[in-house]
Specification:
- With 496 residues, the chain is an all-alpha fold.
- Helix content is 77%, strand content 0%.
- Helix 8 runs antiparallel to helix 9 and helix 17 runs antiparallel to helix 18.
- The longest helix has 32 residues.
- The chain is globular, with a radius of gyration of 23 Å.
- The C terminus is likely disordered.
């Protein structure tokens, strides 16, 4: 309760979180969901446009191919954004990168908004690519910015708001995409262009808030600006202990330059950190959570829900993710990172088994569709309570200031590549394995749970230097006491 009170007292920190989130990871969730509602209208527009140009209608398989290219442009843009996010964060700073990132989504909004007027479905494809670039940059830089700006005891909760904004964007995208709002045949260009609104809000609000204090001190060497930023973020709190910790971290990386992703793979001192983020970032997309949305409409229809009411029920699935991400946000600094990750993947593995059994008996037992429906909600709830949020926090905590941008480039690249991989492969998995299509996802969940249980250390309540020392002991077990671990006296000087 005291932590919550301290958070409420720091109004600037709360407003910084909101300003960063609304134009940041909110856009990722929002732009994933708004493309679903106008699918049939956009496909019809593609056919009409081609017919006007050539006098010949498109075949159904060509329309499907064009639609697949349109959908694939989003993760391709996301991968591009993830790769440029690291250099942007280093050269421009965390805050300026988030502000500049809005240019991509405004270009995307203009392209999609005028696509029907210009009679060009290619503009929609290009729009989705730029939207993906925006999401790729924000998914990497926002959690980095917020975690570096937060006090140690609230670092997990503050960084986890990135997942909450993603879930909020997902739900609002589903709501705005309803037929009664912008999901109709005449209004779909406005729906696709509506992502300009969060961008304009961020461009208006974020300039009023400070840059990451750690970036100012460690990357730029500007102690005065760092202290000024800390005062804005912490109010009247005593800054001496936190500043001492930052100065110790600055001394630890003195003379080093920002690392490239390939340098992290070659550095034995970062072996377990890199393995951890590779495993967890890959599992984030390979666990099958997004594929649950693929089955949602079918399962709800089998449960007897009228076709015209299904979009409203689907909003409930996004709301589940929002509720659990907010819940996770409230308990992460009490429960810790490992229990939430471990519990999330174990529960997902269990629900995957039940879901496959329920699907196989869907037509045999009358109440099985209701069990399938419960499994969808339970699976999404399990994902939201741990993996959805905690995964994005860890790269900030387990890497130092010079390695952090490169670590997020690796995480982001894996996230977007695997999103593309699952989106491409899942229809074939369903065709091959039918009701047992969740077997690959079950294997991923079990293996990830085992990794977290046996190899991932807890980072709750520890300074960045303490976490670094913890991993050094794992990376150099034979040399721990002889060369690398300096003893508790040195660490004590960094504790708040």
């Amino acid at each position: 309760m005291n932590k919550l009170q301290r958070l409420l007292q720091s109004k600037v920190l709360i407003l910084t979180i909101c300003a960063a989130g609304i134009g940041g990871t909110f856009q990722y969730g929002y732009n994933i969901s708004i493309i679903n509602a106008p699918t049939s209208y956009i496909q019809a527009f593609m056919n009409e446009t081609w017919l006007e140009r050539t006098g010949v209608p498109l075949e159904s398989n060509v329309i499907l191919l064009l639609w697949s290219l349109t959908v694939s442009a989003y993760p391709l843009g996301g991968l591009t954004g993830a790769l440029v996010a690291g250099p942007m964060a280093i050269m421009l700073g965390r805050k300026m990168s988030l502000l500049l990132n809005n240019v991509f989504v405004i270009i995307a909004a203009v392209l999609s908004g005028f696509s029907r007027m210009a009679k060009s479905f290619e503009m929609i494809m290009l729009s989705r690519f730029f939207t993906g670039v925006n999401a790729g940059v924000s998914m990497n830089i926002q959690p980095m910015y917020l975690a570096e700006s937060a006090p140690k005891k609230l670092r997990g909760a503050v960084a986890l708001t990135s997942a909450s904004f993603t879930a909020l964007g997902l739900v609002l995208g589903q709501v705005v995409g309803l037929r009664e709002l912008l999901g109709g045949e005449e209004s779909w260009p406005f729906l696709l262009a509506s992502n300009a609104v969060p961008a304009l809000i961020q461009l208006t609000a974020l300039p009023w808030f400070p840059e990451s204090p750690r970036y100012l001190l460690i990357d730029r060497g500007d102690k005065e600006s760092c202290i000024s930023a800390l005062r804005k973020l912490r109010g009247n709190s005593d800054l001496s202990a936190e500043l001492e910790e930052m100065l110790a971290e600055q001394a630890a990386v003195k003379g080093q330059r920002a690392k490239n992703p390939w340098e992290l793979f070659r550095n034995p001192a970062l072996r377990w950190q890199v393995v951890s983020i590779v495993v967890l970032s890959s599992a984030m997309q390979l666990c099958g959570n997004d594929s649950m949305y693929f089955y949602a409409a079918y399962v709800f229809q089998e449960a007897g829900i009228p076709q015209d009411k299904i979009p409203y029920v689907v909003i409930g699935t996004g709301s589940c993710e929002l509720i659990t991400s907010v819940t996770c946000n409230m308990i992460i600094d009490y429960a810790g990172r490992r229990p939430l990750l471990l519990g999330g993947y174990i529960f997902m593995a269990g629900w995957a088994i039940v879901f496959m059994v329920a699907l196989s008996q869907q037509t045999q037992i009358s109440w099985m569709p209701y069990l399938s429906m419960a499994c969808i909600f339970a699976y999404i709830l399990s994902f939201g309570i741990g993996p959805a949020g905690v995964t994005g926090v860890l790269p900030t905590e387990v890497f130092d200031q010079m390695s952090r941008p490169a670590a997020y480039m690796i995480c982001g690249s894996l996230l977007w590549f695997n999103l593309f991989l699952v989106g491409t492969a899942f229809p074939f998995i369903v065709k091959s394995l039918a009701h047992f299509c969740y077997v690959p996802f079950l294997v991923v969940c079990v293996c990830t749970a085992l990794y977290v249980g046996f190899f991932l250390p807890e980072t709750k309540g520890k300074s960045f230097l303490e976490i670094s020392e913890e991993f050094k002991k794992r990376n150099f077990k034979a040399q721990t006491r002889a060369g690398f671990y300096k003893g508790p006296e040195e660490i004590k000087s960094t504790v708040l």
